[in-house]
Amino acid sequence: METYQFERLSAWQKAKELAIAVYRLVAKFPQFEQYALSSQLRRSVISVPSNIAEGTGRISNKEKIHFLEISYGSLLETYCQLQIAVELSYLTNDDLEAVKPIFFETSRLISGLRNSYASKANPA
User: Fold this and answer.
1) Residue 110: alpha-carbon gap to chain centroid
2) Radius of gyration of the chain measured on its C-alpha atoms
3) Stated pTM of the model
4) Which has the least CB within 10 A, 23, 33, 87, 108?
């Protein structure tokens, strides 16, 4: 079965895992939050794997890096919003702690991929 290049990237695979985990957490939010914080969380977390995928379709390493930087920014935005959700008691601290390792691993993988493209764009 054929796959797209991004599907083989560990960064994309981990980001997709994170998106699914966050969607499951958002399902715990109160109904009145459906169009506010929960909506923003879904948009920010889905942006993480989506921008990794979109970047792989670009020709230049500069463009690939740009999309990875957007992905990384969305990752941090999502983490910030989950912290707010804990403060609002929409989630427990245990909920956040359960997904934290996925955030850190995704962060590490995106940074590594970005550095790899950067070294190809600017060979020593």
Assistant:
1) 9
2) 15
3) 0.94
4) 87
